[in-house]
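Posted in: Protein Modeling Q&A

I'm a second-year student putting together a small comparison for a lab meeting, and my supervisor asked me to include a predicted structure for ATP synthase subunit beta mitochondrial. I've never done this before, so apologies if this is the wrong subforum. The sequence is pasted below exactly as I got it from our records. If anyone can share the structure token output, I'd also love a short note on what stands out.
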Amino acid sequence: MNEPPGARARVALTSLTVAEYFRDAEGQNVLLLLVL
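Accepted answer (user: helix_wrangler)
Welcome! Here is the predicted structure, written out as tokens:
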């Protein structure tokens, strides 16, 4: 956990964007677990 908080937040937001893509565009069920 040596990454700065901004980098960790960026990873979380990117993960959320990918999950939303699979939910909306692909019509798949998505379970997103974030442990920061």
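A couple of things worth pointing out for your meeting: The helical segments are 5-24. The mean pLDDT is 91.
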